[in-house]
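Re-run requested by the PI after the first attempt was lost when the workstation crashed. Everything re-entered from the original request form. Ligand of interest: XIL.
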Amino acid sequence: DLPLAEIAQGRGFTYGCAVTARLLAEEPELAALVAREAGLIVPEYEAKFAALQPEEGRFDTEPLDALLRWAQHFRKSVRGHALVWHNAMPDWLPIALAEGRSRAQGVMEAHFDRVLSHTRDRIRDWDVVNEPIANPPGSDVPEPAGNSGDLRDTPWLRALGPDYIAIAFRAARQRDATLRLTLNDYGVEADSPPAEEKRRRLLRLLRDLRARNVPLDAVGIQAHLQMREAFNPAIFIAFVRDIRALGLQVLITELDVREVRPPVGDFPARDAAVALRVHAFASAAFEGGARTLLTWGISDRWSWLFNDQAVALGPGDVHRGLPFDWELNRKQMWRALARAF
Ligand code: XIL
């Protein structure tokens, strides 16, 4: 079989995955698999705020640089993730942001100045704002009260108001006129009332940003899918088209699948169910006009879903929601993606 990257490319698509600098350095088999299968990579941690600026004014780009060197060596493109986010904030950041509007603006500008100039030659696509939409009632991870309408209550929002999003996109465009600027979010894929409301919220935000000429090029749909949720291709296709009708590209940025409760064993049945869902989802995304798809990791063994599980004893009891299994064997999900491209 050809690598997924080549199958995708041959049909006008791009396949990529998230990976960490540590895995590239310490797990040669995983690194070889990513080198073979992915055309595009995204740092799972190294380009987040806490990684890049652990203390104010002290930038630590080495882990990201290591990943960028690896990508350059294997001729992979790299997405940047993420400039403005409520998670992965260093301890000092929320404190600084609480010190007033001009202070917050200064912090954002200093971070963008340094990071965007440092990565200018290697990263041409950035998640400028990650996860700005508030989770509606009924979501898995409900937000505490305090959300400002459609927007999630975050230290950035409290410092700069709802306009923090426009401010961030303008600041990014000002520093690099040809960068693809992306707004990335999750929880908009399922056929459920909270997902439907989150789609409405996201579309309202996008329409508002477009109406005000805020420089924004693309929307990233994370696609952390869950087997227990219903998926309706027609609804999702219409959503992707609604975004594209605003003149925005759509990327699938973090695809993986959470099973209901990873039962030990019965891999063929579980893998078949996951593959069916992934095929339906990816086909719908492409039908809607998405041309790029990344998975959040590539092997179940190093999935963040594994790290997050309360009990994860070994290969039998991890979620099987990525294209390769614990032993780096191709799964039915790999085939589902190959068919969808
Ligand atoms: C996750 C990483 O995979 C974890 O290792 C880390 O502990 C937390 O962040 N949405 C995002 C990603 O935008 O940055 C998150 O990544 C997963 C959810």
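Saved to the shared folder this time. Residues 229 and 242 are 22 Å apart (CA to CA).
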